[in-house]
TrEMBL record:
InterPro entries: Bact_solute-bd_prot1 (IPR050490), SBP (IPR006059). It holds the Pfam family SBP_bac_1. This is Putative ABC transporter substrate-binding protein.
Length: 390
């Protein structure tokens, strides 16, 4: 929100609406958000929405935005340019395929890419991995020939935004998906998912750092920033600032590429869109919609990314903007653009936070070597299906 805050006076002048901010620590925000919408208090007119979108939608807490989109006094399609939004973002702002109505408006997005250290690749005569087989081979070479650098690092920690965020890319590239038949067959015990879980677990066991099963995304970023691993798969927005900023010891050598894929498989990296939404009991619904439309519009988004701190846009036009590409670098912009156009986000069904957490716990056990990937995924499948049948 720091990227848009300096522009708020423009919105206030245009509309006469005063914007009052309430910025909270993440866990406190999640608690207050749920309390506000579940009790009908309506204290917050606009709030960030994440993986709980369908839980909130099916509980009747979220207010669909379609009535405002259909109101010509509030919405101008020619000015807003919805076709400029990435399909992945629009899909997630319709409940990830579970709703035909707008559950929110996209404010920023994350997409998985590959980061590698050019100096290490040159030293060991490595080519950038286009397949997961090559990725593992590169990790092996680095791990076996460097005394204080591990071959790779990856999210091992439990949590539906942690290890399974990476695994879900792998399983979709294997031609499988979450929920073969919703809500009766989770698909988590299918051969494709088991193979993906086994591959990821073995990768981190063989070439990852000590304690790989407890690494969060920030641990992975730090490992890369400090030059203690040869390459990682992580969200592209970590590159600009995180890996190329003043705190990074690898800023001069780190490079970005598209995430690997299986031999003959599809790219389809995972992606996650943060949306801004409003509740059914919001006290200022029309004003909330005007703010959301303005904040996510092409003019505001362009300003945020050219003049302020915005680094990862939900709009294709930003990634094609010459000034923005010059600011962030051609490679970063092009890899991000191509990845976003082919992204396949997770569908967050209404109980995803519950069964996704249990699924991630089973994957963590497999990464830690406490059980086989097959046993872990079979248990994850049982838990997910029991949650819906119970």
């Amino acid at each position: 929100m720091s990227a848009i805050k300096p522009a708020i006076p423009v919105f206030e002048e245009l509309t006469g609406i005063d914007v009052v901010w309430n910025i909270l620590p993440e866990q406190q925000f999640r608690t207050k958000r749920q309390t506000d919408v579940s009790t009908g208090a309506g204290q917050f007119d606009v709030f960030f929405m994440d993986q709980v979108v369908n839980q909130y939608r099916e509980e009747g807490w979220l207010q669909p935005l379609d009535q405002y989109f259909n109101d010509s006094s509030l919405y101008d399609e020619g000015w807003y340019k919805p076709d400029d939004l990435f399909e992945a973002s629009k899909w997630q702002c319709h409940g990830g395929g579970y709703s035909d109505k707008w559950t929110g408006m996209p404010i920023t997005i994350e997409v998985q890419t590959q980061f590698y250290l050019q100096d290490l690749y040159d030293k060991h005569d490595l080519e950038v991995a286009k397949t997961w087989k090559q990725f593992r081979e590169n990790a092996k070479v680095i791990d076996e020939n460097e005394s204080d650098i591990v071959g790779t690092a990856g999210r091992g920690q439990k949590g539906y935004g942690m290890n399974i965020y990476i695994l879900n890319t792998l399983l979709r590239q294997q031609g499988t998906k979450l929920w073969t038949e919703f809500p009766n067959d989770s698909g988590l015990d299918s051969q494709g998912v088991i193979e993906a879980a086994e591959w990821y677990s073995k990768l981190l066991q063989d070439f990852g750092p000590q304690g790989a099963s407890t690494q969060t995304w920030s641990d992975v970023l730090s490992t890369m920033q400090e030059g203690r691993t040869g390459h990682i798969v992580a969200d592209a927005n970590m590159f600009w600032g995180g890996l190329t900023g003043d705190d990074s010891s690898v800023a001069d050598t780190v490079q970005i590429a598209k995430v690997p894929k299986p031999e003959g498989g599809k790219l389809n990296p995972n992606a996650f869109t943060w949306q801004i939404s409003t509740s059914k009991n919001a006290k200022n619904s029309k004003q909330a919609f005007l703010f959301m439309m303005w904040a996510t519009s092409q003019p505001t988004d362009t300003w945020m990314h050219l003049e302020s701190g915005g680094v990862f846009s939900v709009r294709e036009s930003i990634w094609k903007n010459d000034e923005y590409r010059s600011k962030v670098g051609e490679d970063y912009a092009q890899v991000s653009l191509e990845s976003l156009k082919q992204a396949a986000p997770d569908p967050f069904d209404r109980k995803y936070p519950e069964w996704g957490q249990r699924y991630s716990e089973e994957l963590q056990r497999a990464i830690a070597g406490q059980k086989s990937a097959e046993a872990a995924m079979k248990q994850a499948a049982k838990v997910a299906e029991d949650i819906y049948s119970g």
